[in-house]
Design a protein that fits this description.
By secondary structure, the protein is mostly beta strands. The protein has three domains: 23-121, SH3 type barrels (Roll); 131-188, SH3 Domains (SH3 type barrels), CATH 2.30.30.40; 196-314, endopeptidase fold (from Nostoc punctiforme) (Alpha-Beta Complex). It is 12% helix and 33% strand. The protein has helices at 55-61, 64-68, 196-203, 223-232, 242-245, 304-307; strands at residues 23-27, 31-35, 74-79, 83-90, 93-98, 110-115, 119-121, 131-134, 143-148, 153-157, 160-168, 171-175, 181-185, 216-217, 220-221, 250-253, 262-265, 274-280, 283-286, 295-298, 311-314. Strands 8-11-12-13-9-10 form a six-stranded antiparallel beta sheet, with no helix packed on it. The longest helix is centred in the C-terminal third of the chain and has 10 residues, at 223-232. The protein is globular and about 55 Å long. The N and C termini lie far apart (43 Å).
Length: 319
């Protein structure tokens, strides 16, 4: 199991408790890719299969075709400290479900496969310290760069939640799953109020970031990943995928949608395939697809005008 930033020792494995009962684990690396099956990763994906994943190298090596090839391979991403239910293990891979990413695909949460090296056993008891959301809302990037006590750098993604252990001047000490402490600027930790306008403002942090199929981190998002992660930073747990997001929350007629509400797009007789955050005045914030970036656009353009669904969904409060 990865003990902390820069660790590379292979883990002994995650033991299941109670026979077929899931075992509790947490993500032990900044961003863990969740794959559809152990054999889904390709040669180009090797940088994110390392004991300490190199996400920038992975993104930099992929061509447009490689990114399109993530369809059916990459399911989602999980962040440092995120809870994981381990169902089984196979040759260094853990079959997992993610309780913080609700989905009809799994009883406990979003299902998939993660490298065992990217997980650590969950603490026996919940930490007494308060939780902080590393949202990067007060910094110019979606990645908060910190320093471990051992002197190693670590980049924490937007949306990461870690316990606060103390403060040193303008820096906070956060506890990593392996026990190490990481020092980050206090200004990087900005709680997001659970209100629609605040969720929208937080989501706008992603403007200009390239679309990533299955992306749910500061390195890139797909359409539903953007909606899910922005709400998570406001302490609101919503489904991971667009079709599930369209079936939960408070239904609101789309013409009455408020800032931060989710609006959906579907082809005739099909479930929603795309979701956006309503920005008001006929505009929406969304992550449109591979080869494009998170942007604010008009819903009156095609194909959005024809596919816009009559009901929006509200997860955040007013204001």
């Amino acid at each position: 199991m990865v003990a902390g930033a820069g660790a590379s020792t292979a883990p002994p494995g995650l033991a299941l408790t109670g026979g077929s009962s899931p075992s509790a684990a947490v993500v032990a690396v900044p961003v863990a890719n969740v794959w559809s099956e152990p054999g889904a990763a390709r040669r180009v994906d090797r940088p994110v299969l390392l004991a300490w994943p190199d996400v920038p190298a992975w993104l930099g090596a992929m061509s447009q075709d490689d990114r399109l090839g993530l369809h059916g391979r990459l399911e989602t991403q999980a962040l440092l400290g995120e809870a994981v239910a381990v169902l089984s293990e196979r040759a260094g891979w853990a079959e997992v479900e993610l309780p913080s990413q609700p989905s009809r695909k799994g009883k406990l949460g979003y299902p998939g496969w993660v490298r065992c090296e990217h997980l650590a056993e969950a603490p026996a008891t919940a930490p007494a310290a308060a939780s902080a959301t590393v949202s990067a809302l007060l910094v110019s990037a979606l990645l908060v760069h910190g320093q471990t006590e051992a002197g190693g750098p670590v980049a924490l993604s937007y949306g990461t939640v870690l316990p606060i252990e103390g403060r040193r001047g303008q820096y906070l000490l956060l506890r990593l799953p392996g026990g190490d402490l990481v020092e980050v600027a206090a200004a990087a930790l900005a709680p997001v109020p659970p209100a629609g306008a605040a969720v929208l403002a937080s989501a706008r942090t992603f403007s200009g970031r390239a679309y990533l199929w299955g992306g749910c981190s500061g390195y890139g998002v797909d359409c539903s990943g953007l909606a899910h992660l922005a709400h998570r930073c406001a302490g609101l747990v919503i489904p991971r995928d667009a079709d599930d997001q369209a079936g939960a929350g408070e239904p609101v007629p789309t013409p009455a949608a408020a800032a931060g509400d989710l609006v959906f797009f579907a082809r005739p007789e099909e479930e929603p395939h795309h979701v956006a955050l309503w920005a008001g005045q006929g505009r929406m914030l969304h992550s449109p697809g591979t080869g494009r970036v998170v942007e604010e656009a008009s819903q009156a353009t095609e194909p959005y005008r024809s596919e816009l669904q009559p009901l929006a969904r509200r997860y955040a409060g007013p204001g």
